[in-house]
Amino acid sequence: MIETINAVIEEVKAIQKDRSMEPEAFRMKYLAKKGLITNFFQEFKSVPNEQKREYGQVINTLKNLAEDVYGALKADAGSSAAGTRIEDPTKRTESLGFGQKHPISSVRDEIIEIFSRVGFDVSEGPEIEDDWHNFSALNFPEEHPARDMQDTFFVAKDPDWALRTHTSSVQVRAMEKQQPPIRTISPGRVFRNEAISTRSHCMFHQIEGLYIDKDVSFADLKQMIQYFADSFFGKDTKIRLRPSYFPFTEPSAEVDIYWGLENEIDYRITKGTGWLEIMGCGMVDPNVLSACGIDPEVYSGYAFGMGIERIAMNRYQIPDLRMYFENDIRFLQLFESGL
Ligand code: DAH
Q1: Tens digit of pLDDT for each residue in 185-195?
Q2: Which of the chain's ends, N or C, has fewer CB atoms near its CB within 10 Å?
Q3: Ligand 1 first shell, C-beta below 6 A
């Protein structure tokens, strides 16, 4: 019996040398359930006791050898198959390259960096927001149109929960959590039930800014906006402040940046004015301070909120706001240089 096994070992060694057998045929002959080796194991019982040890050793030698050879035969088959494989004609030939930041993320990060240089920290709030933080604490009257279904996406028709319509809700959270001095910016996604066009979308990004301390004035606000515009757009960029109205600031203003008015796209984007509105701002209304537990007799402050898409549009001369969300690889690749 032991001689038989030794003969099989020699046979397998020969196969190992000339690699002449198909792996599956090899497996069937030696390693499968009905193969030679299993058979030898089954005969172990009837081997006389004094031979059992030697028998065990040779049969294990055979088994280990056969497994190695089977592995080698399979590897040979794999590599020769690869060698003869026809190239996939649909495969890209150029490398895919590394991913890069979306222009919205780059602009957001740059704005955060500009404000963090002058002491602003970063705060965040939830995208599903309650009526108090999105509207009531911000001094929106009960019948204000922004609360309407027309403008706001409500969650499951519950008037108390909605997708936040602006990041001003995070101001409220910041003031509720902390007494002044507060100097924070809050980047995030906001949602409005608006028709999608070149200039507007139902989902976009804002950065809110809030500064509350003793003796903060409108002059401080103007100075901060100028600092931001100089840092982000460059010293030669023209900006203007227009009086405006927001329920949560008094007085309020809107800030425009000069876009230019040379071609049709300029006309479309700036509605024929040459100016593009990029943020709203103002002095925080005393009612808002009181609602958030801050004494308006002691403290004052300013707030601003800017749209990241609009600002990125100006930075990269993007003619249509919808391009940000289409994820067209050709658009995204324009920003590959790590801008
Ligand atoms: N929340 C306003 C909006 O979404 C923007 C805004 C205006 C934010 C004035 C402010 C502000 O903090 O003071 O249109």
Answers
A1: 999 999 999 89
A2: C
A3: 166, 168, 208, 246, 249, 280-282, 303-305
